[in-house]
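As a warm-up, study this chain.
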Amino acid sequence: MNAPDFDAAATFVAANARVIDRRRFERLFGDGDAQPVRDAVAAYRNADGGFGQALEPDCRAPGSQALATEMALRIMDEADAWDEALVRGACDWLARVAPAEGGVAFVQPTLAGWPHAPWWVAEQGNPASAIATALIAGTLQARGVSHPWLDRATELTWTLIDALAEPGPYDMRAVFSFLQRVPDRDRAREVFGRVGALILDRKLVTLDPEAPGEVHFPLDFAPEPDSLGRELFDEATIKANLDHLAQAQLEDGGWTFNWLAWSPAAERDWRGFLTVDALRILRANGYPA
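Now compare it with the structure written out below.
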């Protein structure tokens, strides 16, 4: 087992990461309390109840965006820093900006005029995004949230999964996350049995952990031992990818990513976030961290 250098990672986080990722690190790997994580998340909240302010590093706009709101909910969930008031405000914002069919669009108009990654482009008519809707709905469902937006978004997600025709890897990552977390386990397992293998059939996953470029690995779809997606991969493949993740720690102590680093600020923010995430995944799989 290739153990990461935890001390080097701690130094990297202290030297480079945002306050929110430093608080995540303290909470997940030290004796940090939940409240500072909640407070760090709240700093990205807007008056409308949504989240922005570059919480999702690839969108530097201050206005509320779906994926920033998704990240806020995910961080509060993983750190067990769940705050009902923040969640209620986020759900109310999601309801106000929802497309006619429910869910949430990938990009909100507040993006206009602000720096952002080139793939942050609104779809024609701003329809519901399968990615953003599934990710947010999965987290809220796992936490037992009750809200009209979530009711519609959950049903929409089931519909979108049933209609999958030419999914991309990010679509499938969101689908896997939703199916992992939604409380209706019988339905989730049945649907996974129908659509899970699409990532192999459509070559959306790369089994070789050394593969270059913006590719998606087994751990992107099945990061934890109890992930539904684990049944798609043999133990040797998972072990090789976990070992590679541990070895991917750079000399400065942090981890990096394989998509376009379009902004120095975004690159730094992502590296802090992903360094904490890498340690979290390794620890969940039995690696010392």
